[in-house]
């Protein structure tokens, strides 16, 4: 009987401790900004601002013939919505100067007697000069121009029937409007959960050490394991709330679909948060003070999570060494899971490999931190 | 003035004596240039495709050969069954499916028109757009070829061929590293300038030595100049160091005059150091400096067009970027290094940086209190 009462007392104490920790975190406005402001602002930034879509790219034309044909081609380009005619050049000396100013992305050079040549010889030349200091923009600008001009040729053909025409239709799977934000949401979730679970929790535990209040906690009737759990449980809640905020905003603001099972998605999030928290605990057992804990989590966790997880930059484009390195980043596997579940609508059968990797990593880290954890302080 | 020199001497000795500080000054450029530049690669190449060839004709084989022959595409395999191809797309084994329907060749010859389908894995939207564009170009080229072959191109019968030649200026191999490295240099200079100065100032607060500084007879401007000038020098040194690494490891072109770049950086840094000083007046611990700095730098850098063009951003963001110093510097490094732009091309940028630096520094100096 007494035993049972003891147990419920211990439980109450533990719950009280968790509550205290939770209020401790959310009472500080600066922390609140970090845990709520960062996810929301980052998602808005990635959703609205980061885009590689070409619209109104400024072009210049060096038209040496100025006949009806070249005028129509230029009109086709400018009416497409992709291009905006900024300047008419009078000589090709101007090209260099114009590119150096940095506004104009492409210069079209029509050869003299353009229309006449087409009518007489059946062919004429256009030179497309692109400012390739941004390679991807250059590629897209160049491709759109070619496509528009090619379509123009097909439509024109000066009234002739086109023999053997191949029509190509393109279907964009999983992301019909090729929105960049679909690529970023999973990575952003991983980054924010790392930030909250690993970085913030490791700092909060080392803070107790640094300020000497860890000793006070250790002599309290709470067991060491309860202290650690009590410290990290609030962060688990916060990270979970952040994940929900990001998924909800992605869905409501950016129409990112959730084709797969929500339960599966949430359980995977939970697994990842658990992993991140164990990383946080591990860091706090190694780091002597807050600043070092912060540096370890920033350089060892946050940066790789941002750069090497396929969050922004595709892993396939990296050199092999970095690709291997990305395999030990938990976020890489989490990203794959989230993309597959949300956009492709697959089930656990499809992502079991990634899930097992995450489970294995968590087990390893928990084992390591249990081994490293010292009850006594020096 | 002599007082300032003494303070500077003391600050430099103190900074350079600290082994960790030296490590940061040397390691950050190395890490950023060698890891960030290589990792931050949005290059699209080696696009794997699967072919669903239900036609099995000469034309379909020729078309597939066209794709396999292009350095941009990689054939992952051919199959009859659509489901199989879609499974490969789902598995991330392939990025693109080319679907050639049965009787493709027959329809093409008989009816003069046939259709193909490209299915892209569009989770990475940019890559999907670029590779589908390339694929369409390959198909169009092929189309032109077969027309020419079949009709033996009596040129008069086939009017309206416009030949397009492409030239990619400033980066003819489309090396993404050359685009990224100047941007990373901007991050480098910004981080070193802002974080180191801010953290150094707050450290004095943390360990309680600010009070000692406050009771000394040195004036506020001397104190601030003595605290900021060392980091101004260090950041410029790191810019040179970073450039050197980029030059050695991936032959980053330096088309323009380095004097232009460095004088711009010198002005830009005034504003950045001012921001560091400002943050230090708000923050009480080095940790807060890091958090606040991280938050703002991330926003400024992403909005500044580190890997996406500012012109593609919505209008409000482009308006905000008119006040974003990082955005200007990002443009300047790319223009000077890659295109060889000179002073005349960046007067707008220069003017903004001067104004920004002036206001930032004045504001933060006013905010900074040296209490006796």
Task: Give descriptors for this structure.
heterodimer, A: 378 residues, alpha/beta, abc type-2 transporter like fold, 4-stranded mixed sheet, 5 strands, B: 372 residues, 66% helix, elongated
Can you give a write-up of this model?
By secondary structure, chain A is an alpha/beta fold. Chain A folds into two domains: 18-50 and 180-372, no CATH class; 57-159, abc type-2 transporter like domain (abc type-2 transporter like fold, 3-Layer(aba) Sandwich). Helix content of chain A is 68%, strand content 10%. Chain A has a four-stranded mixed sheet with strand order 2-1-3-4. In chain A, helix 7 (181-211) runs antiparallel to helix 9, helix 10 packs antiparallel against helix 13 and helix 13 runs antiparallel to helix 14 (348-372). The longest helix of chain A has 31 residues, at 181-211. Chain B is an alpha/beta fold and 372 residues long. Chain B has two domains: 2-41 and 174-367, no CATH class; 47-157, 3-Layer(aba) Sandwich (abc type-2 transporter like fold). Helices cover 66% and strands 10% of the residues of chain B. Chain B is built from 14 helices and five strands. Chain B has a four-stranded mixed sheet with strand order 2-1-3-4, sandwiched between helices. The chains are: A alpha/beta (378), B alpha/beta (372).
Question: Summary?
Answer:
Chain A is an alpha/beta fold and 378 residues long.
SSE inventory with pairings:
The complex is a heterodimer of chains A (378) and B (372).
Chain A: H1 2-26, H2 29-49, E1 57-63, H3 68-79, E2 83-88, H4 94-101, E3 106-110, H5 114-121, E4 123-131, H6 135-156, E5 165-173, H7 181-211, H8 213-219, H9 224-254, H10 262-286, H11 290-307, H12 320-327, H13 330-344, H14 348-372
Parallel strand pairs in A: 1-2, 1-3
Antiparallel strand pairs in A: 3-4
Chain B: H1 2-17, H2 19-39, E1 47-53, H3 58-69, E2 73-79, H4 82-90, E3 96-100, H5 104-111, E4 113-121, H6 125-150, E5 161-169, H7 176-206, H8 210-215, H9 220-250, H10 258-282, H11 286-303, H12 315-321, H13 325-339, H14 347-367
Parallel strand pairs in B: 1-2, 1-3
Antiparallel strand pairs in B: 3-4
